[in-house]
C-alpha cells in the first residue's frame, strides 16, 4: 500500500517527493524545506537550535562547541510527529550538521508508539544520490517517475580535446574557516569539464588553509558555502576578494549552494550546468 502520510526531514527528500508527484501525501517537513514553494505550507516538525544571524565563523564555532558537548543541532517536534501519525518518515544519517539523524527519529517514534517505516539516506556520490531517488520512488509507489527524475543525475564527464588541460577549480564549501568539499561535489566539478583541485569525491569535506587554496593553483574559485543562496555567497566572495585571501587575478564564481550544491537531489544537475557556463564565460574550457 502506498503511504498516505509522509514526513520528510530533509530538504532534498522533500524535493524528490514533490518531483515524483506525491506532494499531497507530504504532511510534515523541516524548517529548511523551501522547494517547491508548496512545501512551506506543510507542518514543520524539525527546527534548529542555532541562533539566527550568526556569521560564518560564528556558525563554525557554534557547531564545534555543540559537537564537543554532544548537543543536538536540531529539534524534532515529537508532538507534531504524533499529531501527523506518519506512515513513512524520510531522514538521514549523513551529517549531524545537516538535519535530524535517524537515531533521534527512531527514539522519538518508539517513545510515541508510532510504527512508521523509516528510510534513512546517506549519499556520498552522484550515483548514491541517484539510488536515493529510486529508493524513494519505490517506497511511494512511483518507480517509473523515479527513473525519469533520477536520469537528471546521469552526468558523464565530458571528453577533452587532445592535449587540452582541464581547468583547475577550487570549491569552497565554507569560507570562514575555509573548507574543501567532499561527497558528490568533486564529481560535479568533473561533470562540468574541470578538475577539482581540492577535495576528494566520496569523502568528507575537510578544513583547509588559504595557503592550501593558493597551492592548488586554481583557474576558478567557486564560493559555495553550505546553506547559503547565491546572493549571500556573493557577499562572502566579495569579502574574500577584498581581504586578498584568494590567489591574485583568479576568477571567482559565487553559486546558490543551498539549492544546487549542498542538497543531494536532482537539482545538483543545475549546479553542474551553472559551473560549466561559468567556465565557458571565462574561456577556461578547451
TrEMBL record:
Domain Fe/B12 periplasmic-binding: 5-283
Highest rank taxon of the organism: Bacteria
InterPro entries: ABC_transptr_periplasmic_BD, Vitamin_B12-ABC_binding
PANTHER family hit by this protein: VITAMIN B12-BINDING PROTEIN
Protein name per Swiss-Prot or TrEMBL: Iron complex transport system substrate-binding protein
Organism whose genome encodes this protein: Nocardioides marinisabuli
